[in-house]
Amino acid sequence: MNNHEIDYKLYGDDMQFVEVELDPEETVIAEAGSLMMMDDQVRMETIFGDGSGAQGGFMGKLIGAGKRVVTGESLFMTTFTNTGIEKKHVSFASPYPGKIIPMDLSKLDGKLICQKDAFLAAAKGVSIGVEFQRKVGAGFFGGEGFIMQKLEGDGMAFVHAGGTIHKKELQAGDALRVDTGCLVAMTGEVDYNIEFVGGVKTALFGGEGLFFATLRGPGTVWVQSLPFSRLASRVFAAAPEKGGSKGEGSVAGGLFDLFGGDRK
Hints:
Layout: E1 7-11, E2 17-22, E3 27-30, E4 35-38, E5 42-48, H1 57-70, E6 76-82, E7 88-93, E8 98-104, E9 111-115, E10 119-123, E11 127-132, H2 136-141, E12 147-152, E13 156-162, E14 165-170, E15 175-179, E16 183-187, E17 191-196, H3 200-205, E18 211-216, E19 219-224, H4 228-238, H5 251-258
């Protein structure tokens, strides 16, 4: 066992946070900005890389950090270490409505591939890298699917996704087509590619995008019902224009606007 063995507890339903229990000298790593609260005698430290020791040397850490920037993450990560002599706790919150999924990498053959903004926290020793798709089609057209994060190790990691999470087991030969934004994570043995939506009318007027992900088993796949990009677009579309106002749920307000009324 190369990773720190951490215990945890999940709280909440749709706006979850995870409380990690640290024994003396145990450490958990997390993305910047995910901290919710921590006990005293927990030391917080910003590090270059992920602290796994997998990169080896300064140049290795620099390259690893550079790959993380490609995924839209920070060059740095934050570690939280229990410096006391008793058990201490540190909690990390989900960034938007959804679920936190505990992933025991020792039961997933030591590797998990997830969307670039899904990683929340992990036991020290877990390596956080980048999984580049080998296929050119996936590279140019995969959107959120092209550049994905790769979690490696034998410890516990926590992944966050939006809406309801569905776990699906694929047997050898099984195929599943998923909207690229709805794909959360998959085990390392799943074959993944991007396919074009057939038919010009479907592509232009279907409303589901031009490409979807095709996943082939064997392996395990996690899918989310509400990608953050979809949530953000709905919020943006519903936002009132600058200087204006919307009478939410008011029929009279809509008629007033229809006839050019001034409600000032």
